Amino acid sequence: MADLRLRNARLWGTEGLSDVTIEDGRIADVDTASGEAETAGPDTVDLEGALVIPGLVDAHAHVDKTLFGGPWVPRTAGPGLAAAIEYGATERVKYGVPNPDYITALLTNMAVHGTTRTRSHVDIDPGLGIDAVHAVREAVERLEGRVDMQMVAFPQTGLLVSPGTEELMNEALAAGVEYVGGIDPGGFDGDAVKHLDVVFEMAERHGAGVDIHVHDGDNLGVHEFDLIIERTRALSMQGRVTISHAFALYDAAGAVRERLIEQLAENRISVTSVAPKKVLPLKELDSAGVRTGIGNDGVRDLWSPYGTGEMLERTLWFARNSGFSRDEDIELALDAATFGGAEITGAEDYGLSAGSKADLVAVPARNAAEAVMTHPTPTVVVKGGKVTARNGVLA
Ligand SMILES: [Zn+2]
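Above: query sequence and zinc ion SMILES. Below: predicted holo structure tokens.
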């Protein structure tokens, strides 16, 4: 017997309305909506024509840093990356960050707005040790399976310039963190080759993937892309490496950009964007077959007062900063926020067809472009076949 039936669903990519039957956490059947009154049996929800998309994937988050639901903290850091890092590392002590209560509040807001999966970079440094890993785990447990979490051991205060960080990252990886992070290998950490050698060597030793922050742009950024591509190939890590922010792709023009995109595709290196002004060239990446994900980055933390954790809203920012106005292009942004992130984070059996895992979001919109432009609160969120939220409240 079905565990759940979603009636009158407007499945993304399908004409007309469907009835979706869910069994054992998966989509068992998709039928044309009968329109008949439900008589008896399984738990049934009438979606009344709402658009149904697969669970949103936040492919680049920093949930450990958040003050969501906590005090408003004035941001007084000086300009530039180094000043922001310094400010974050000293002020967090005063505000008790990482805090499982703030992380829980943010994950809750993400979950009720349709995020069912996220990859979060978690600060690892000598001041914190691996405390942030434990804080995120505690919050994820409190969410009781509503959001799948993948963590990246992230050397926010540097790897080479912050002695002791490498050992702590090894400790985090040994404790089950799935990805090795990195940050501006040349621009911040001072030695691109050495930084990347340490990162990839650590990944190889732990059988982990790599997801590295590269804000470095222009020639330095291009050089770092080449070093990452070279190491991905040498270690046969195709499909397990992500470059986050990837500003060099925005800065590079013509033949250089084309070559980088071609080599990313060849080595199945994915990219993620948090929708800044230097937004990634999504259409070029998509036509070359490079998977792109979208993430919320830091939300209401010591770095940024912006954000809510709501993925449809972030997708709107991405579309707007990309200059998209055609429905087809906006839909491509939503594809990155769903299927793109799912592939990058290795989600299995993701989608809307029979056999897929039942991670589904019902949005009061008539199509994908309208869902992104209006980014409404989902009426129903289903995770693993169970209704986990309704109208902005956990169920
Ligand atoms: Zn980041």
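The CA atoms of residues 242 and 266 lie 13 Å apart.
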